[in-house]
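Our example copied in:
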Amino acid sequence: MTVVMDKAEKPEKTQTAEGTAPVVAVRRVSRRMVIAAILVVWLVLFAVLRGKQTLSLAAADLTDLHRWFNDVNDSIGANRNSNPLFLYFFNEIRLVIDNLVTFIQGLISQPPEGRPVPQIGWLGVVGIAGYVSWAVGNWRVAVLAVAGFTFLGLQGLWQESMDTLALTLSAVFVALLFAIPLGVWAGLSNRFNRILTPFLDFMQTMPTFVYLAPLTLFFLIGPASATIATLIYAAPPAIRITAHAIRSVPETTVEAADSLGATRWQSLLKVLLPMSKRTVVMGINQTIMAALAMVTIAALIDAPGLGKTVVQALQSLDVGTAFNAGLAIVVMAIVLDRVTTAASGREDPARRSGSRFLTWRRPLLGAGAVATAVLIYMSHTYLWAAEFPGEGDLGSSIARAADTATTWTQDNLSGLTNAFRDVITNGLLNPFQTLLTDSPWWLVGAVLIGLGVVLGGWRAGLTAAVCVGLLVGTGVWSDSMTTLASTVVATVLVMALGIGFGVWMGRSLRVDRVLRPTLDAAQVMPPFVYLVPFLALFGATRFTAIVAAVVYATPVTIKIVADGVRNVPETTVEAATSAGCNTWQIITKVQLPMARGALTLATNQGLIYVLSMVVVGGLVGAGALGYDVVAGFSQGQLYGKGLAAGLAIVLLGVMFDRITQAAARRTSA
C-alpha cells in the first residue's frame, strides 16, 4: 500500500531527548483501495457461494406480493363505478381528460359524430402549422413546419401523426396549467422550492415505463391514461425552468418596482414574468419534447398514433414499417423543437428595429391569419382538402428501402455485427450478469450498500440499503440484477465514448461547433426511435437494447464532459504546458482530474438515460424488468408482476441517482 502524506506534504516534527524527530502523518486509505477491496471480497465469496440464495423466479411464477397486486387490480375493477373515491375523483378526472383528448382529436385527427372527416382537414392543419411557426419564429421555421407536416402525409401516416399530435397537445396544455403556476411559486418561495425539488427529482429519475402500470390501475387503459401519464412526465421540466427563470431576474429590478409602489401581483405580471419570458418558453420546449417521447411509449397502454404503429412493428420485427413510423416521430419532434426554440429566441429589440420588412410584419401577420382561415374553411368543407391525397407511396418506398437495407446488412455485415455483439456480450455482459445473478442476494446487496457508502457517504449508503431491501420485497430480484448488469455495461460504454468525444470537444471549439448540433438533434429523438436501426443490425436481442441505450445516453454525457474540460482554467493548462507536459499528460493529469465533478455528473445522467432505454428494450428481446412490465400489460395474470417490476425499476433509478449525485457533490467539494 502506498503511504500518502497529508495535505501539507511535509512531515511534522516532535521534540525528543535526542532532538527533533520527524513524524509522518498518514492519510486514510483512498476510496479506490476500498472499492478494490470490496470487489475482491465479492469475487472470492462468489466463487465459494455461487448459485446459492439467488432469489430466482421463473417467468410465469408469482409471489404473494404479485398476487396481492392482482387482487387489488381485480377489486378496483369490480368497484370502479361504486367506490366514492373513483366515482367522484378518479373517474371524473378521466372523463375530463378523455373529453379534452376527444375534442382535439375531433378537430384534427378523428371524425367526430356526424362527419366522415375531422373538423379541420390536412390543408387547414398545414396552414395553421405554417402560420403559427411564422408568427412565433420566422419564415424559415414556417417553411420547415409546412414541409414537415406535408412529409407526414406523404408517408401515409397523416391520421396516426395527428393522433400523436392531439395527445401531445392535450398533455402539454394540462401540464402547463399546473406547471407554470407551480414554477412561479417555487421561484418566489425558497421554502416551497425546497419542498418541491425532491418530488421533481423523483419524477425525472423514474424511467418512462414506470408511469404506465400504476396509472392504468386508476384510469384504465386508453388515451386518458396515456395523456395523464404524459403530462405527469412532461411537467417537471417546465416547473424547474420556470422557477429558475423567476429566480434569475435581478433583485435590483424587483426592488425598483417595489420602490415605485408596485404590489406583489403587479411585480409578478409587469416585471418577473416579462423578464423571464424567454426562459419560460425554453421550459415549454422541454415539456413538449418530453410529452412527445412519452406519448409514443404510451402506445403500450393503447394510446393511438405513431407509437402504436412502432410498437406493433417492433413486436412483429417489421423493420420497414417501424422505420417509416419512427422517421415520422423524428420529423414531428424536429418541427416542434424548432418552432418552440425559435419562439424562445425571438428578441423584442429585433421586432422594434427599423427594418423595412419588420415594420410590415403586423399587416403581413394579419394577411396570413386571413389566408389560414380560408385554408381551415376549405379543409372543413371540401373532401379533397380534408383527406390527405395519395396512398402514402413515399412511406411504402421508405419501408421497402429499410427492409432492403436490413436484408443487405444481415446478409453482408452479419459477420461483423455478430462479432461485435459477441465480444461485448461474452466479454463484458455475460460475466458481469453471472456475477450479479448467481451471487447470493445478500452479498450483492452488501456490495451495493458498501459502494454507496464509499462513493456517496452514509446517506447514499442508507438509500442503497433501503432500495436493496425493497428490491428483495418486489420478488423480481433476479430480473433486477439482469437489468442492472445491462445498465452498468451500457454505462461503461457510454462513459468511454463520452470521455473520448467530450475531451475532444472541450479542447477544440471547431470540433464543438461541428458535433454539438448533431448531439442536440440526437437528444430531440424519442427513445423508441433508437431501437429501430439496431433491431435491423443485431436482431431482437438484449444487445440491441444495450446499443440503443448507449447511443441514446452518449450525447448528454459528451456535452457534460466537454463543458467540464472547457471550464478548467486556461492558466492551469498553460502552466502544465510550460512545465513540459505533452497533450496526453495535460489531459490525464490536469484536465480530467480537475473536471472530476463533471465526470461524476455525466455518469449520473448516463446511468439514468441508460436505465430508461434498457427497460424500453424489453420490446425487442432485452427481457428482465422491461419484459415483465410489457407482459403485465398484455397478460392479465402477470399484471401484479409487471407492477412490481415497475417498482423495481424506480428503486434502481433512485439508488443510481442518489449514489452518483452524492459522489458528484463529494468530488466537487
About this structure: The longest strand covers residues 12-16.
